UniProtKB/TrEMBL annotation:
Domain spans labelled Cation-transporting P-type ATPase N-terminal: 9-83
Family annotation (Gene3D superfamilies): Calcium-transporting ATPase, cytoplasmic domain N (3.40.1110.10), Calcium-transporting ATPase, cytoplasmic transduction domain A (2.70.150.10), Calcium-transporting ATPase, transmembrane domain (1.20.1110.10), HAD superfamily/HAD-like (3.40.50.1000)
CC terms in the record's Gene Ontology section: plasma membrane
Keywords: Membrane, Transmembrane, Transmembrane helix
Protein name: Cation-transporting P-type ATPase N-terminal domain-containing protein
Entry annotated with the keyword RNA-binding: no
Length: 923
């Protein structure tokens, strides 16, 4: 066997040589013992990303923070001028700020690490002669992997089989989309990676066709390791809200700096100590400008992502959290989102049964196929399925698969019957077909062995059917089997099957069969047609591959129907109702016929009785203006193709809506990409996931609603942070300006303001990110994250509170100055007033829309803990002499304490009045 240390140009070797080098057969794969040995030798197939939580680089990032740099520089300045006590205070403040930033970064990274663990990928391999899905991290060199449309390649591999295989290699180059592959070619060793047509690379996507390959490199040894490392990192690009926060903080900084420059100039002209004024200005700047506010957005969104993951949803990036909170329209499919996604075949029906109104419904024991025609219908459906069965003793640990337990006698040298677990991999309908086949005595693997497949196209809603070609069926060399939309197959069928003989179909018969489909739809079920055609061609006709609508000369034999049911989720109706109350318009867009769509929409409250249902054919005939007008009134669209869905998304976006769309099929990828948020289930193909922003690991529309709530709550946390920043940042500036203008002593000292800056940093940087969701968050109108970070309410609150607080503080300063309060006591009073105002404001903004007596402060332990620590710190400063000396505090008399208590009451009242004014008049 080949040594992995040798640098081998696999593209220059034939695939037989590659298989020999790894000591593996393409049809059986690696034995379990050999896999275990290689796993121990080569390790897991993962990229070893750098852990920088406690690295020098990480701490250097802390030191690069403007606030920390400013404090550190100020500390050096004070040390040079002999202000040693102040230097100690500044270093304490610098360390405290660095600690706050460290906690913020560490908590964010911890969340991202958890989310990365949740998003596992799987690969389809052949081992021990069995086909199975395994976590991609368990791939080893020599593994045989299977490739199909929508799969992501889990490791570098040499192709050993390819049929019309095309790869999306945009990971290597943006232009490398739809790259054709060829397993039989060999490529000279000096050719660059983009010319190696017999290789597939880790991280690339299968855009078309099927293939089989042998793994040649895993983990950090793959060709695109550096690119993949970046791909697997959580996207932390600045979101629109972060950009808005940064603009707001910089604007505030500009205002503060301008005010301080004016104060500095005025103070110098009046004979104030220039050094003291500079230090005070720097201290006030540190307390007023919060450079980490945009990072608080990251933490708030990261915590939202973690919360959502616990409820069954995974958001790919931070921007997705914001956008979900702003969604105004949801275009949703039916299967898996509004329904359980567990499709069961409830009837197998032949044309003669329809004509005679005798259907074959499933019983509790399963199907009892009454004749060969019914067996033919089910057999053809099983053959045209791309689902896969995997048997495991005592159950299966493989996720994203539907399990069905049965009994099977096995010969393993043991006696008696043992229960085995059947895991069916595939899309819901395909799984249902294979399960019905088992219940009817038709096993997929046996059927394919008896009737080998020579060509195949999986179901595609744009094609409206699955197509499979098989040998040893019928009179001709091959049989073309089609399973899909009844209207598509009925329009191309000229015969029908009766007692094993094909007979001519009349227009009346065709109409009767179409009416049967309508009847099935009206009771909430879906009919799928089965047809075939005997042919001498082993390949699917080109017209059917490229443009199914032009496949007219089909002369198909119509075999019958499969009727399938999918239970509507118990939580779906309530979730749809909540979404509508939250200002989100829910529109059902499905490939099902209008009757099934009507039934589901009425059951879920999406459609009112007598409201029109739009069908795909009518939609395609309308202009954009006409369709836009239809969108205003219509909530149900049936028989829609992927291109129709994309058109709806683009029209809604053009009208200013924030659109979320659900989809599972690979052909939905473009429409999902066009939406603001694409939503898919976690068992969708990697191609669909690549186009989506939200994965539903469990649940359906209810999980989407949780995601919306999470998005709005995260944005709410950011708004609270910025309300705090604006409301608390200007009081010291105006108070200092008033003191200089009045010619009085400074109302506070630099050391005292540096301490206040630490207290504020705690509230700004993380406490609101850990708060609970506001009870009324879904009752508010969706607010787009791309608009300004402050609404009218937030701006009005900050203005009212700043004016009231500043007026009270300046008034108290003037009164105390006038009555001859000693300078030390005056500063101590003003410092404590500012400190308690900082704490109370932080507490009362826990829910800006509720009065303080209705706020459950215990629901946010970080907020409560921060407030308690701040109060304890103030008590320690005032009561212990080393701290009183360090911060220049003096005892206050009884009168000043009562006045301080009165100020606290006034401060709390001011916040409550500002909240009431802002959120009553502002809204």
């Amino acid at each position: 066997m080949v040594s992995h240390r040798k640098k081998i140009s696999w593209q220059s070797l034939s695939y037989d040589t590659a298989l020999t080098a790894f000591g593996v057969a393409s049809d059986t794969g690696l034995p379990e013992q050999e896999y275990a040995r290689r796993k121990e030798k080569y390790g897991e197939n993962i990229l070893r990303t750098r852990h920088e939580a406690f690295s020098v680089r990480f701490f250097w990032e802390l030191m690069k923070n403007p606030l920390v740099l400013m404090l550190f520089s100020t500390g050096i300045f004070t040390f040079i001028f002999g202000e040693y006590l102040l230097t100690i205070v500044i270093l304490i403040a610098c360390t405290a700020h660095a600690g706050i930033i460290f906690f913020q970064k560490w908590r964010t990274r911890k969340v991202f690490a958890k989310l990365k663990e949740i998003r596992k990928s799987f690969s389809c391999v052949v081992r021990n002669g069995r086909t199975m899905d395994i976590p991609t991290e368990n791939l080893v060199p020599g593994d045989i992997i299977l490739l199909a449309t929508g799969y992501r390649v889990g490791a570098d591999a040499r192709l050993i089989f390819a049929r019309e295989l095309e790869m999306n290699e945009s990971l290597i180059s943006d232009e490398r989309v739809g790259v054709k592959k060829n397993a039989t070619k060999t490529v000279p060793r000096e050719r660059p990676i983009d010319e190696q047509v017999n290789m597939v690379w880790a991280g690339t996507l299968v855009s078309a066709g099927v293939g089989k390959a042998v793994v040649v490199a895993t983990g950090g040894r793959v060709q695109c390791a550096a690119l993949l490392e970046r791909l697997h990192m959580m996207d932390t690009t600045r979101t629109p809200l972060q950009k808005n926060v940064l603009v707001a903080v910089l604007s505030l900084a500009a205002v503060v700096i301008l005010c301080l420059a004016t104060i500095l100039a005025f103070g110098a002209s009046t004979g104030s100590s220039f050094a003291t004024v500079i230090l005070l200005s720097l201290a006030v700047l540190a307390a007023s400008v919060h450079t980490r506010a945009s990072a608080a957005v990251t933490l708030a969104h990261a915590m939202g992502m973690e919360t959502l993951a616990k409820k069954g949803g995974f958001v790919r990036n931070l921007a997705g959290v914001e956008t979900l909170g702003a969604v105004t329209v949801l275009l949703t499919g039916k299967t898996g989102i509004l329904t359980e996604g567990k499709i069961r075949i409830s009837e197998v029906t032949t044309p003669r049964c329809v004509f005679e109104q005798k259907t074959n419904k499933k019983t509790q024991e399963g199907f009892s196929l009454r004749n060969n025609d019914e067996r033919t219908v089910l057999l053809h459906a099983v053959l045209a399925s791309d689902a896969r069965i995997e048997w495991n003793l005592h159950g299966s640990a493989i996720p994203h698969a539907e399990e069905w337990h049965g009994m099977e006698r096995i010969s393993s040298g043991e006696t008696g019957d043992r229960e085995r677990s059947l895991v069916i991999h595939g899309r819901p309908f395909e799984r249902g077909v294979l399960l019905a086949g088992l219940e009817g005595g038709i096993r997929h693997e046996d059927a394919v062995r008896v009737h080998p497949r020579t060509d195949f196209l999986p179901f595609d809603s744009s094609r409206q059917c699955a197509v499979s070609v098989h040998k040893k069926m019928g009179d001709a060399a091959h049989r073309l089997v089609l399973v899909g939309a009844p209207e598509f197959l009925l329009s191309r069928a000229v015969f029908f099957l009766e007692e094993g003989v094909k007979k001519s179909m009349t227009a009346e018969m065709r109409s009767s069969l179409a009416s049967y489909c309508a009847t099935v739809g009206k009771r909430g079920e879906r009919s799928v047609a089965v047809a075939y055609k005997d042919t001498n061609e082993k390949a699917i006709p080109l017209a059917l591959k490229k443009n199914p609508e032009e496949y007219e000369d089909a002369r198909l034999v119509f075999a019958g129907f499969l009727v399938c049911s999918d239970t509507i989720r118990a939580s779906a109706r309530q979730a749809v109702s909540f979404a509508q109350e939250a200002g989100i318009r829910v529109i059902l867009v499905t490939g099902d016929n209008r009757f099934a769509a009507e039934y589901a929409a009425e059951a879920l409250g999406i459609r009112q009785r007598n409201q029109d249902v739009a069908e795909g054919e009518a939609v395609r005939g309308k202009s954009d203006d006409a369709l836009g007008a239809m969108l205003s009134e219509t909530t149900v669209f049936a028989r829609m193709l992927p291109k129709d869905k994309e058109r709806l998304v683009l029209l809604l976006r053009a009208r200013g809506e924030v659109v979320a769309m659900t989809g599972d099929d690979t052909c939905d990828a473009r429409a999902l990409q066009s939406a603001h948020v694409g939503i898919t289930r976690s068992n969708s193909s990697e191609a669909v996931k690549e186009s989506s922003g939200l994965f539903l690991m469990r649940g359906g529309v209810d999980t989407f609603l949780h995601a919306v709530k999470t998005g709005r709550s995260s944005t709410d946390s950011v708004r609270k942070t910025m309300m705090y920043v604006l409301s608390a940042s200007l009081s010291e500036v105006f108070l200092l300006g008033a003191a200089v203008a009045l010619g009085g002593p400074f109302p506070f000292l630099p050391a005292q303001v540096f301490l206040i800056s630490v207290m504020r940093g705690s509230f700004v940087n993380f406490v609101y990110a850990f708060g609970p969701e506001a009870p009324d968050v879904l009752e508010r109108d969706p607010v787009s994250a791309v608009r300004h970070v402050f609404g009218k309410s937030q701006r009005l609150f900050a203005l009212v509170l700043t004016l009231v607080t500043t007026a009270v503080l300046v008034g108290l300063y003037a009164i105390l100055l006038r009555v001859g309060t000693p300078e030390g006591a005056l500063r101590t009073f003003m410092f404590l007033a500012l400190a308690f105002n900082t704490i109370f404001l932080g507490m009362l903004l826990a829910n800006p829309r509720q009065p303080f007596w209705r706020i459950n402060f215990a629901s946010n332990t970080y907020l409560l803990g921060t407030a308690v620590l701040c109060v304890m710190a103030l008590s320690a400063l005032y009561l212990f002499s080393p701290f009183t000396v360090l911060f220049s505090l003096e005892p206050l008399g009884k009168g000043l304490f009562l006045l301080l208590a009165g100020f606290c009451v006034v401060g709390v009242s001011a916040v409550e009045i500002a909240k009431r004014i802002a959120f009553r008049w502002g809204d």
